[in-house]
Amino acid sequence: MKIGIVTLAFSLISAPAFAACFGTDTLSTCTDDSGNHYTVTRMGNTTMMEGSNARTGSRWSQDSYSIGNSTIHHGRDSDGNSWSTTCFNGICD
After folding, report:
1. Is residue 59 within 8 Å of 47, Cβ to Cβ?
2. In a 3-state reduction of DSSP, which class is residue 28?
């Protein structure tokens, strides 16, 4: 799950960047050289991420919930658009 969240976070960035994360398995704060700053909170089967970029003023978020072999992701992209997807056994629609 951690890899999926980090992969999604990097897909929101216009150029590849190295992220430095600090904290615990429950709460992490990350920054990268593209100006992105985000926090990742994990509680049980739920992972929440909120991010922003001070250079551009953009903000985004993602929540993921795992139930059995399914994971439901939903969030808001940097343009303010809502999105969601469901994954079953690692395959997403």
Report:
1. no
2. strand
Q: How far is 31 from 34, CA to CA, in rounded Å?
A: 8
61 three-state secondary structure: strand
Integer distance in angstroms from the first to the last C-alpha of the chain? 17
Contact assessment for residue 64 and residue 46, using Cβ atoms and an 8 Å cutoff: yes
Element (H, E) at 6: helix 2-11
8 alpha-carbon distance from chain centroid: 5
Its pTM stands at 0.72
CB distance 13 to 5 below 8 Å: no
* Amino acid, res. 29: T
Q: For residue range 28-50, what is the model confidence (pLDDT) as tens digits?
A: 999 988 889 999 999 999 999 99
- Predicted pLDDT of residue 16: 55
